[in-house]
Amino acid sequence: MSDLRLDATQxxxxxxxxxxxxxxxxxxxxxxxxxVLVVGAGGLGSPAIQYxxxxxVGRLGIVDDDxxxxxxxxRQIVHADGDVGRPKVESAADYxxxxxxxxxxxTHEIRLTAENVADLVDGYDVVLDASDNxxxxxxxxxxxxxxxxxxxxxxxxxxxxxxxxFTNDRNSDDATVADDGDAPCYRCIFPEAPEPxxxxxxxxxxxxxxxxxxxxxxxxxxxxxYLLENGDLLEGRLLMYDAMEMSFxxxxxxxxxxxxxxxxxxxxxxxxxxxxxxxxxxxxx
Length: 285
Ligand SMILES: [Zn+2]
Prior knowledge:
Layout: H1 8-13, H2 15-18, H3 24-32, E1 35-39, H4 45-55, E2 59-63, H5 88-99, E3 104-108, H6 117-121, E4 126-129, H7 134-147, E5 151-157, E6 160-166, H8 186-189, H9 202-205, H10 211-228, E7 237-242, E8 247-252, E9 274-275, E10 281-282
Parallel strand pairs: 1-2, 1-4, 2-3, 4-5
Antiparallel strand pairs: 5-6, 6-7, 7-8, 9-10
The chain binds zinc ion.
Zinc ion binds at residues 184-185, 187-188, 256, 259, 261-262.
């Protein structure tokens, strides 16, 4: 642990963390020295950014190439009415700056691609996938598996959400990892993206506004625990939330030996091998 010391203002700001044995000043220092890349400043990214900033995660990267639309405001709570038309990364950065001056924000107003993913992810402790499309989700999974970067996954559909965590530590002896000491990646659970147009997006089907709030907060909880190195992560477990039934169900998920990116004989050795836009197909060559 570094010799970073909490000053009086920080001891006050984070006092409800610091007084707990599970966090304490050492845990708070881990958060202040931690870094998270949040991909997407929308429904999932908004609450994640808010709580990670409030918790004092010292460096937050935010990736998004969209501008705020009025129809976003029903759920994307990091943006306000006056932000309509502004880049989402700017609006989110302003929110964080007003909330907690301890947090350095790095904004990336860009769409994540196979060409830029390594540069964007490099240097962050953990990636929080708050994206809203399959191309980004598979691209992040594949890059994070190949680079050994921890990844928090969250997804929403109408009244339902799911969350899991991939530490992507293939040699982990961690007791929280599934029994054989290994854990799946996103492709192990969902090998292929659906055909374009077969799964409607929020704009087509609607989404309960508070739903991404719950799911994004669960992702932020996992990331905070990861940085604290405390608690049981959702590794090898998929949490499914149904807002209408108000039910949470956790199912064990296993590594797939035939997985094209983390299996025994992987086809994907580089994100350049995959055509992410469109069907996320693995190219023939
Ligand atoms: Zn896999």
